[in-house]
Amino acid sequence: MSTHAYPVRVDAALDGHLSRWLWLVKWILAIPHFVVLVFLWLGFVLMSFFAFVAILFTGSYPRSIFDFNVGVLRWTWRVTYYACGALGTDQYPPFSLEDKPDYPAHLEVAYPEHLSRGLVLVKWWLLAIPHYLVLGLFLGGGWAAADTTGASSAGGGGLIGVLVLIAAIGLLFTGRYPRGVFDLVLGLNRWVLRVWAYAGLMTDEYPPFRLDMGGTDPGTAALSATVES
C-alpha cells in the first residue's frame, strides 16, 4: 500500500459480525436512500456547474458548494458500503450529508485553497477519460448513466459487483466476509470515489492508477501518524 496522501480519503471498517441473510434485502431497505440520492446527485451536478464558473473566474471552489458536494459523495459512499457496493456493514446509513464518527464508512476531501483555471476546462472530461475506461470495468457498462445512487456498483456486472456477489455467497454459507475480497472491494471503491471527486472539480491532483486496498486509506494513515508524532 502506498503512503502517499491523496486529498480524497475513503475509509471503512468491516463489521465484526454480519448477518447471513440481511444482504438479500438491503437493496430494498435502502430504497429511501436511493430516492434521496437521485435528487442529491441532481444537486451535485448543478452545484458543480456553479463551481466550474467560480473556478474559471476566481480560481476558488466556493466553500459552501464544496461542503455540499462532499456530503453527497459521503452519503453515496455510506449507502454503497451498506447496500450494493460492499455489504460491509449491517448498520443502516444515516440520512445526513455530515460525517458520522460512529458509522463505519467515512469519506473526506481536503479543501483546495486554489484550483487551476485552465485545468477546470479539461480535467472533468478529457484528462479523466483513461479513468472512465477503468471505471467501466469496475462498475459495468452503464455506470456513467446509472451510478448516481451507488446501486449500480453491484448491479452493473462490473468487477465490484462480481466481488460483492462472492462476499455475499461467503456470508450465506460461512457467516464471514472473506478478508481478501473486502480489501479488494475497498480498493476498487476508493478508486471510483477519487475519480468522482476529481471529475467534480474538487482537486487538481490527478487520481493515481493504483489500488490502495484495505479499510484504511493511506491518507488517513499518514494523517494519524502525523498526529501521533
Compressed to H and E, one letter per element, the order equals EHHHEHHHHHHH
Summarize the biggest pleated sheet: 2 strands, antiparallel
Q: How many domains?
A: 1
Counting helices, strands and paired strands, the structural category is mainly alpha
Proportion of strand residues: under 5%
How many DSSP-defined strands? 2
- Please mark out the parts with pLDDT under 50 across 5 or more consecutive residues, or reply none: 148-155
What is the count of DSSP helices, taking H or I runs of 4+ residues?
10
Mean pLDDT: 92
> What is the CA-CA span between the terminal residues?
21 Å
Q: Reading side by side through the largest sheet, how are the strands ordered?
A: 1-2
Topology:
Elements: E1 8-12, H1 26-29, H2 31-58, H3 63-82, E2 105-109, H4 123-127, H5 129-139, H6 143-146, H7 152-155, H8 159-174, H9 179-199, H10 218-228
Antiparallel strand pairs: 1-2
